[in-house]
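Hi D.,

Good news: the full-assembly prediction came through. Inputs first.
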Amino acid sequence: MDWNTKSAAPAPDEDDVPASESRRGFLQIAALTGAVLSTSGRSAFANGDIGYHAKDLPDEKLVEMYRTILRIRWHERTQADQMLGNPDYRGYNHFYAGQEAVATGVCAALRNEGPYKQIDLVYSTHRPSGHAIAKGVDIPKMVAEDDFRATGLNGGYAAEMHLSDPSVGFVGADGMIGPGHVTATGSAFAFRARGSDQVSVVFGGDGTYATPQFHSALNNAKLLDLPFIYVLENNLYHQYAHYTYSCPHKDIADAATAYGIPARVVDGQDVFQVYNAAKEAVDRARAGGGPTFIEAKTYRYYNHWGAPGAKEGELGAFGYDPLAITSFRPEREVRAWMQRDPVDICRDTLVDWGVLDDAGAAEIEEEVKAEIAAAFEWGLSQPLCNPEDGLKHVFAEGTVPARQFG
Amino acid sequence: MAQKSWMYAVLEAVQYEMREDPEMTWIFELTPPVASNPGMPVINLETEFGRKRVCNTGIDEYWMAATVLGAGLAGSKSATYIPYQGALMPFELIQNYAGKMRHMTGGKASMPVVWIIEMTGQTPGFAGQHSCYEEDSYYMHIPGVRTVIPSTPYDAKGMMHAALRSPDPVVYLYPAGLRTLVEEVPDEPYEVPLDKAAVRQEGSDLTIVSSGGGMPEVLKAAETLTAEGMSVEVIDLRALKEMDTETLVNSVAKTKRLLTVDQSYYTLSPGAEVIARVATNVEGAKYKRVAWPDAPPPASPEMFLWMRPNADGIVGAARDLV
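Then the structure:
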């Protein structure tokens, strides 16, 4: 695997430059007051207050966040349509649609381009496509990988649940629940040891609360004050079970507070709320202030895995999922969450701020749709894998012997 | 007696044992203990026995494994179904705690517990962490834990009864690729021993030994070889620990040729142990091994299906040997 980087570094912390004076300020005052839960080196907030950092972002950055949300959304929709309507399509996904604002808001606060030892690292989950896109993974290559193509992001070895692109700091998806969290603290440990201002971020779902690794990650991150951010996407369901089956807290963030880690509960459908919390967390980590926990309340529009209950050309999956067997999501719950759609909230906010008008927003969406369509066209025309290549990449060099023929 | 699916046959055994023993508990995540079969009542352990005894937990396989062990040490029979994503998460508990406990307590600990451990992802597409090609080798290595791997619905039910009644802790491997198998399974309880291999086909030219997810392709290959005039003896290990050495040695003493087939990594696969046991007991025999290469399973169907041991590869190896 190539752990080198693909592009030169921009100036770090370009996001810190206030560009839009007109949007600044109304919550800035809150940043100057009150005590802080832990030891942020930069500013102090009253418990519960949060700086509205998104207002400081340049227009181009805000529009890029909207574009990222749309890229994720149309990737998910296009892939679902492929699964439903194209008998030759072989890929699958744990769809991220509905949660786009979380990945987008968090990754917008990270350093995603530059030398490998300067960019921030993201550890993802078995629901990785949104995180990958937001971190900057090449979408056509990801599409090819998801359909097991030789020229895919990981050569057809990975598929959806093991996507990885170190060149943008996307360490990878994790098909398991737990190991990635503690491993992410290991990267943060290295950052601290080598004096880097990099940040290690792990995404996890509500199901991770139950794992021993969740608690190990938080405890050790706090003990060592690691530059570590735990982004818990509470979409209410782990696999097919409601999170109340595995967690006694209404807000899982309460658990982080118990470990002495500053924690935020944010509206995971509003990309700017997510960004604000992520920005605060990144600033704290870079300044040596230790870990932060962010719980984003969100929802997935599709079922746990694949597209059961979905219809080609329509967003979301409804009704009975045969895989769920004894528990499934009420259709009304899905539809209620879809009323607060992350795409709509982002667009409406930017229109409200005067960053975009409706026509401009629609134009961007058309551009993104075309971009994603082209990504699928390219990805699905890529060559299939060579069978014998399965014996490669076990070690850094050479191949292992075939054993299946005796 | 009726045609029954694998999971229906297994849950029939569990349901019977739970009705017999009101203390028995069952813990699961992801996979509810529910099965249906045409013309038969739906089995749903959760609704029948209630959530105090049948517990749906969070994603913490170590807890699941430890909890049934603790229940067993407290004197209550207990079983858990650990799905494939977590199949080796509880390894340390089973290996270093349960496996040593009877011996290190001088025989005082009793552990009437069963860990049903799913092996799946032995089909293309899942890959890597969602593809199980190692659980048999790891768990069969542990002293003090019986490790079994049935390959038919009949054996699955009989071995579940035997496992739940055993005073020893049992790792009950479930090759999930076999879930589509259907066969005649008695309604009444019965036991299939936890330490006996099964001779699936008798023959005198060649012995083929396999287990679990390897069996369907072995049986297919045996059919081809038999049609070609080769007299093939097929042995299904069923018990990995304790392995039924006698059946293996008796067969190869007769055929003088042994081919092992594993849906598991080559190194330290069950077949390696089979050959070691036979070779130290039978003079002048010839050996071959078919196994998954020592590489993690890749996602691509082209790579995966080429690497997965199949009937063609088994037939080729058998021809080379005889």
